[in-house]
Design goal:
The complex is a heterodimer of chains A (about 110) and B (about 110). By secondary structure, chain A is mainly beta. Chain A is about 0% helix and about 60% strand. Chain B is globular. Classes of the chains: A mainly beta (about 110), B mainly beta (about 110).
Chain lengths: ~110, ~110
């Protein structure tokens, strides 16, 4: 099956810093989403981004489907950004696979 | 607009018992999918239902089953519980079938098997 790798696995930032999270996938995909898992376990939608670039406040995402990767940018990080970030891809057979996750800790 | 609602939020069972979890999707959404999250295996897709039909299924044993009702609410059942079934079970709803649409998740049901 498809491999979905996220990097880095762990990231510690000072409040106010910027960061880039990466999602690499080993095969072509039909769509891709980014999620933030809060401390209570709920997955919060960030972006639905099969291709192109989207921005929402301090967050933006870019997917280059032809090169099989997606990037999530977090600018001016805040402590509330802490948590685990997942990408999820859907293959041509409509099977969904989650990435390995990036655990972000923002220190005041 | 109400979000995805999962019940119960927490439950404790013993080995050999069975458990039923419920998921009510966002109003108007006809697709409900289920996922298991464990520290060792990460997030894994269980199955997806659309208009009361199972459309996709992950690689889980037959002890894991589900169904969807005419009002789009879905239940998943795990029979003969094992210690390894302890996990956070998440459901998501979507307006489109087959994992093709944007997914919206509930808060999850945390199952502990003793």
């Amino acid at each position: 099956g498809i491999q979905v790798e996220q990097s880095p696995p762990d990231l510690i930032l000072q409040e106010g810093a910027n960061s880039t999270l990466r999602c690499n996938f080993s095969d072509s995909v039909n769509n891709l989403q980014w999620f933030h898992q809060n401390p209570w376990g709920q997955l919060i939608n960030l972006f639905y981004i099969p291709s192109g670039t989207k921005q929402n406040g301090r967050l933006s995402a870019t997917t280059v489907a032809t090169e099989r990767y997606s990037l999530l940018y977090i600018s001016s990080s805040q402590t509330t950004d802490s948590g685990v970030y997942f990408c999820a891809v859907v293959t041509g057979a409509n099977n969904l696979f989650f990435g390995t996750g990036t655990r972000l800790t923002v220190i005041p | 607009k109400a979000g995805v609602t999962q019940t119960p939020r927490y439950l404790i069972k013993t080995r050999g018992q069975q458990v039923t979890l419920s998921c009510s999707p966002i109003s108007g959404h006809r697709s409900v999918s289920w996922y298991q999250q464990t520290p060792g295996q990460g997030l894994q897709f269980l199955f997806e239902y659309f208009s009361e039909t199972q459309r996709n299924k992950g690689n889980f044993p037959g002890r894991f089953s589900g169904r969807q009702f005419s009002n789009s609410r879905s239940e998943m059942n795990v029979s003969t519980l094992e210690l390894g079934d302890s996990a956070l079970y998440l459901c998501a709803s979507s307006s489109l079938a087959g994992n093709t649409g944007e997914l919206f998740f509930g808060e999850g049901s945390r199952l502990t098997v003793l």
